[in-house]
Specification:
By secondary structure, the chain is mainly beta. Helix content is about 5%, strand content about 40%. The chain contains two helices and 31 strands.
């Protein structure tokens, strides 16, 4: 298995290739708060990338590679082994040069057919706080449920430590990143296809690795690009990796299957602050800076669907599960009809900028986190095409005005986790 410790890491790869039940929740990329001043609890922000010596930043871990569909063929190498084509289908649209792999985001492939799952039932009841977890460290920019919603994981980019809790708030594991520099750009994604043990894909400028929480071991994923963005795409076995640069304002985005195959890559002339892939994998929305435009592209037809001006301080975008609506966040929340690009509703009652936006799997609820100490939950109509105004949201508050960062939802839409600059996680149920 090309360097994987087979006793620890092979099972999830084999299971992914055999086709576990797909998790089709609509998922959206990481968010950035570079334009928003921190709260009092997090008042000292450093650019961890500036003037960093390359050798001091080098992360060395056990060598490993993502498995390919033809892993037994030792003669496969280079572009052939990871699914890329030498004559890649490449085109330019808007601010991005786009290349599609042999297995683009909307195809399931030969060895990994997507399972059909029924849409979860609608849930319109109010959220109730189930558990407040005191982490005790700042900059909890990410928080996510583990598979099956058995626990939650967060990362403090102040301490450089991962924290794994069960839903009762018991700390199960704390793991420090090797050679971590305070406020370094690090992001993680829970490996949703691994159900036997909790594993994370961790990306930083020095490399991307697989972290097994049970053993605490890191394995370098040589075919996954280094960067400062990683997230689940919403397509079973497909993950997005990004590298946002501020000098110049530009970046890259790459989607890879767990089999190692390239699905699509984007070289962007502006900084791609956030992205959202549609449930069918055919459409992507990318929010760009400094133009502050969000561009929606149909990857299959190679056409721009619409271009929309994001709200001021924009940096968040989400697509509804049925693909008829796009939510944009900045100094206010804006809902846009697709494919027309028509603005159909807004909520400007935010005391600070929006950080993250998520739709539930069935589209019954829109969750928004913001830097004013609250997340907000909007109940949506069953037929999103009938939406013409946003209802009054339920406020889900943390302490004072501390930034609320991450939000993650269970597939059924009955569990929610939020993280905040008050150094805590909150688990909500309905």
């Amino acid at each position: 298995m090309n360097g994987f410790r087979s006793s620890q890491f092979s099972p999830w790869l084999i299971s992914a290739l055999l086709g576990l039940s797909a998790t089709t929740a609509c998922t959206f990329g990481p968010r950035t708060g570079v334009l928003v001043p921190p709260t009092e609890e997090e008042s000292t922000v450093h650019d961890a990338r500036a003037e960093r010596e390359a050798e001091n930043d080098k992360f060395v871990g056990p060598k490993a590679e993502w498995v390919t569909e033809n892993d037994a063929d030792e003669g496969a190498s280079g572009a052939e082994s990871n699914g890329e084509k030498n004559d890649a289908d490449t085109f330019e649209l808007g601010w991005a040069k786009i290349s599609l792999g042999e297995r683009p985001p909307w195809l399931s492939g030969k060895t990994n057919e997507f399972a059909k799952e029924s849409t979860p039932a609608r849930v319109t009841s109010q959220w109730k706080l189930k558990k407040s977890i005191w982490v005790g460290q700042g900059y909890l920019g990410q928080a996510a449920f583990t598979p099956g919603e058995k626990g939650v994981v967060t990362l403090s980019t102040q301490s450089g430590e991962f924290y794994h809790y069960n839903l009762a708030g018991k700390l199960l594991k704390k793991i420090a990143l090797p050679d971590f520099e305070e406020f370094e750009d690090v992001e993680f994604a829970v490996l949703r296809e691994a159900t036997d043990r909790v594993q994370l894909i961790v990306t930083r400028e020095s490399g991307t690795s697989l972290l097994d929480l049970e053993s605490g071991k890191f394995d370098v994923l040589t075919q996954a690009p280094a960067g400062n963005v990683v997230d689940y795409s919403g397509r079973f076995g497909l993950y997005g990796f990004g590298n946002r640069s501020i000098s110049p304002q530009s970046g890259t985005l790459q989607f890879r299957w767990l089999t190692g195959e390239l699905a699509a890559s984007f070289t962007c002339k502006e900084r791609p602050d956030d992205w959202a892939l549609s449930a069918d994998g055919k459409t992507i929305a990318i929010q760009y800076y400094p133009s502050n435009q969000t561009q929606v592209v149909n990857l299959e037809t190679k056409k721009i669907v619409t271009t929309v001006t994001s709200p001021k301080w924009g940096g968040s975008v989400a697509l509804s599960p049925d693909g008829t609506m796009m939510a944009l966040g900045g100094e206010k929340l804006v809902l846009v009809r697709l494919p027309s690009g028509e603005v159909i509703a807004e909520d400007a009652a935010y005391e600070n900028n929006i950080h993250d936006i998520r739709f539930t799997t069935n589209g019954d609820t829109l969750i928004v986190s913001a830097y004013d100490g609250k997340a907000r939950s909007y109940t949506l109509p069953e037929d999103l095409k009938k939406l013409s105004a946003l209802p009054k949201p339920q406020a889900l508050a943390h302490s004072g005005s501390a930034n609320v960062y991450a939000i993650d939802l269970s597939r059924e839409g009955t569990h929610l986790v939020t993280s905040s600059g008050d150094k805590s996680l909150k688990i909500w149920t309905r």
